Amino acid sequence: MLLFSARLPWEITAAMLADTVEGYKQREQSLISELCQCFDLPMMRDGLVNWVERQHPRKFGNVLKGEIEACQQIAQETGVLVDPIYTLAGWVLASQLSQQERKGGAKVVMLHTGGTLGMFGLAQRYKSYF
């Protein structure tokens, strides 16, 4: 995705989960650098990702009150399974951006690359919700 985003007219916005913006930017630059080295590409500019702080930051693995219920509601209304640790943060951000889309902003696509397996552990911790 980073390879093509440098050449196509779209922006990448990502929800920060458990690190500082500096940590995310360093990791982003490291991944871009590795990609360019691996495929013998010219170095791309950094700062391709617009990092957004999570609405309710927390330490890794903490589930806040109401998040399991929010995940249930999303699943019931859309058929899309989201977990409260990773995917819910992306869903909330994508929902906010899609509200802007309705007012004439850019189209929004949510791409999620992990976290769903964590639902199995959550199902054991919160049995009555699953």
> What is the beta-strand fraction?
5-15%
Q: Output the structural class.
A: mainly alpha
Number of DSSP E strands? 2
Q: Residue-averaged pLDDT, rounded?
A: 83
Distance between the termini: 34 Å
Count of domains: 2
**What is Rg?**
17 Å
Shape: globular
Largest sheet: 2 strands, parallel
In helices, the fraction of residues equals 40-55%
Unreliable stretches, pLDDT < 50, 5 or more residues? 1-5
Please provide the ordered H/E string of secondary-structure elements.
Answer: HEHEHHH
Topology readout:
Blueprint: H1 2-5, E1 12-16, H2 21-38, E2 49-53, H3 67-78, H4 87-102, H5 118-125
Parallel strand pairs: 1-2
Structural description of this entry:
This protein is mainly alpha-helical. It has two domains: 1-53, no CATH class; 58-130, no CATH class. Helix content is 45%, strand content 8%. The chain has helices at 2-5, 21-38, 67-78, 87-102, 118-125, and strands at 12-16, 49-53. A two-stranded parallel ribbon has the order 1-2. The model is unreliable at 1-5 (pLDDT under 50).
Notable characteristics:
mainly alpha; globular; 2 domains; 130 residues; 5 helices; two-stranded parallel sheet; 45% helix; single chain
In brief:
The chain is 45% helix and 8% strand. The protein is built from five helices and two strands.
